[in-house]
Fold these 2 entries.
Entry 1:
Amino acid sequence: MAKNITPMMFAVCVLVAVSCGASPTAPAQILPVTAIASFDEDGGTFAAEAMLAIRDLATWQNLWTQLNTGRLPQLPLPAVDFTTEMLVVAAMGVKPTTGFQISVAGANEQQGRVTVDILETIPGLCVTGQVLTAPVVVSKLPLRPSAVAFSVTRKVRDCG
């Protein structure tokens, strides 16, 4: 016995078939993150905000030299095994006072993309030192060939 199918019934059948056949999105894999260096004073390395991933020793050595410009004695280069690890660097750029901080809050990988969560803390109603600063953080995480994206959250911290 043939039944008449209305356009609305056809659309519902197509939506049900498509949604049932779709594979669910795999949950994000949390990646362990270890902070290995943090700079709050002005090292002159990053005049503007910057976020990057480093996957080789030569780039890491060059950046470390820049981060230590004007520092005596220079800090020793933290060891990184680039066969299994990579670095992420987040810099706030030059800020007009003390009280600015930056950190890596976490990282995850989902569908071939690494997302690094950055937390920037800025001073609210505070008395701060009137000196230029340029907060930078360097963190280590497992090596991934995936593209790296950065997600920034800013929060204001009042003193008191």
Entry 2:
Amino acid sequence: MADKSCMTQEEKRARWREYYHKTHPRKEPRTFYHQGLQRIVVHDHHSTRIFWSRQMLDLLRQHFPTTINDELAGIIGVSIRTMVRKARELGLQKDPQWLAAIWDERRLMARVEAKRRGYPGSWKKGQHPSPATEFKKLST
């Protein structure tokens, strides 16, 4: 057996893989109904995969263009990341007009909140940070 310090990185990885497979026998994938998620899942040794039912896909196709992602993910019962990944896989996109309206609404809400708080972090009307150097050329 070669000394570990003389081994290449690939040889070290191969030894680790061999050791891992001896100590962690591969389990067969299981398909079962998950009570907490209330859906059928496939669990192999490393991850859990959900089955997208026709109803879930129909909801996604119908509501994705005009619904906020976290609301729709809650309705469907998956994580936001899972829902967005599936939407990309299906080629779905947000409606540009709806998206612009949401952005405008959020900007207006942010403006109202900033005004309520007294514009923290911004200049107030009539405030001069440095009147001595304002509108004067700096000598270099």
